[in-house]
Description:
This protein is an alpha+beta fold. It is built from six helices and eight strands; from the N terminus they run H-E-H-H-H-E-E-H-H-E-E-E-E-E. It has helices at residues 5-11, 25-40, 45-48, 51-77, 104-113, 116-121, and strands at 17-21, 81-85, 90-99, 130-136, 142-151, 154-157, 162-165, 168-171. Strands 1, 2, 3, 4, 5, 6, 7 and 8 form an eight-stranded antiparallel β-sheet that branches. The longest helix is centred in the middle third of the chain and has 27 residues, at 51-77. The two termini are 15 Å apart.
Amino acid sequence: MYRNIxxxxxxxxxxxxxxxxxxxxxxxxxxxxxxxxxFLHKLVPAVAGNADLxxxxxxxxxxxxxxxITRLVISMAGNSWEFYYKPTGEKLRRxxxxxxNADKGKVLDCVTSGNFEKLASIGRSNISAVKVSFYATAGRxxxxxxxLEFIPHTHEPITDIxxxxxxxxxxxxxxx
Length: 176
């Protein structure tokens, strides 16, 4: 049975990958900005003298506060991890490509050979019968990919995790 790339990165079991919690700072700043807008109507004389404008600023400010608090709760309670490639410190981003079942052979060939340019030329599908899930750095210097197939109710891996560094396969099981 193949290991699933999502579980491997979620566990961050590799010596090459580290995971860090996303910063809550943007959500805190959004909340603070909302509070500033909500109470700014009292500080600006032109706004304080206009009841409609003052009420609008209060409503807009509290909507921003609610959005900031919601974002903060999601970032603290949800799956808010980011993965980094340890040797360079680059952030790994998750990507997913969906293909039709008829293109399964082409997709497998492209991924196992590391020919991601050819993979990009294969037509995408809205139905994810065959899915390529991968984590890559921004410059695509490091990439871990896996092909999954939809078997009713879930996507099951049909290849092991394949690791590429600077376009060359470094190991089919580099996350061990």
